[in-house]
Every structure is written in structure tokens, then in C-alpha cells.
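Subject: for your reference before the review

Hello V.,

The reviewers asked for a structural picture of the protein, and I figured it would be easier to keep everything in one thread rather than splitting it across files. Below is the amino acid sequence we used in the manuscript, unchanged from the supplementary table.
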Amino acid sequence: MTSQDTQSLDENVLQIDIVSDVVCPWCIVGFKQLEQAIGETGVSAAIKWHPFELNPEMEEGGENLREHIMRKYGSTAEQSQAARDKLTAIGADLGFDFRFTEDMRMVNTFKAHQLIHWAGPEGKEHPLKMALFRAYFRDGKDLNDHEVLADVAESIGLDRAEALKVLEDGRYADAIRQEEAFWTQNGIHGVPAVIFERRHLITGAQGAENYASIIRQLVDGETA
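And here is what came back from the structure prediction:
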């Protein structure tokens, strides 16, 4: 599997665009399921990540994650814990480590998306996306903090000083706003949203078997 600009893909490579947020647990679950399906089907696939903010209006300091979920979705503390337990179990089966804590906070991810955008031409978009998922869900890091984001960038081989400059000068802010607007204007209001071959939209984490079935149908259709 590769991650690159879908504008320049070989016709034999399955193009997969994923609209997601790095603080969305079902986004990493969906990707890991998709990753399994790609391995199972043996296709060559190119992943391109696109930005989406679950909480674009989130205040600078963020909000306690459990309180945020209960307020936003009207869930009880028991329902929140059950959801965490379910995600932790699913993640373990997929090889992803969810470590929810009581002081975990939901934060805005606009800065994180700018950093991912910058990492693209460096060939590091996919590794950075994965590292940000781990930093948030495994390590409990604040993905709205410049120093934290720069540390994550450095951990996958990007220049830390340049990462800080990107975050401080906001050179990619307009590009992210434009791309976010494109997806919402095209009907995407929840993530993960997976677009196969720029034509087939699948929303939500569908499971490895379902993703594999979709991939086989697409491949069979192309070769028929």
C-alpha cells in the first residue's frame, strides 16, 4: 500500500481518498479495517488523506473528552464507558492501542491538518497521520499544541524547526479551509468517509470483510 497524490497514480492502483479527523476513533478503526482488506485482497492501493474537523469551534484549551461526548451526543457516563471499552477491544483486534483516560481532552485539529498537508510533498503524509492517531489515542497528547505537533513530526523524520514554522505562520490554513469546505459542500458531514476511485463513497467504519467485498467488486468491475 502506498500513500501519494491521487492525481499521479498508475491506472492499476486502486485510488482511495479518506476524509477524516485525527481525534476520531472510528477513523483509525475504519482505516485499520481497510488496511486488513487491502492486504486480504492483494490489491495495490494508494491512500490520500483529506481534512475534516469534528469540532471546528472548539475552544483553545479543549474540553474533557468524556464530558464533551456526553454533552454532544446526550450519552450517559455508563454509555460513554461502554463505548470506550468497545473501541479498546476493537482496536486491540486490529493492532491499534486505545488508552482512554479520565483527563483525556477533545481538542481542535485545524493545526494538525495543516501539518499533514505540509508533510504530503515530503512523502510523509501517511506516516504523520498514523503518528498523530497514536499520539492522541495511545499517548494522550494535545494535538492543538505546537510543541507536541512538532515532536510528532520529528518522530517520523520531518524537520522539527520547519514544522514549528509551518504551524506559526499558518501558510497552509487557507488550503485546509478550502478543502474542508469542498468536502462538506459535497455532502460529507461525518467521518470516516472513504471514496474509492473518486466515485464510490462509503461512510463509517464498515469492517474488514465489507471493505474487502467492496474492493473485489471494484476490481472485478474494472476487469470485466
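For the response letter, the relevant points are probably these. The chain has a mean pLDDT of 93. The radius of gyration is 17 Å.

Happy to draft the paragraph if you're swamped.

O.
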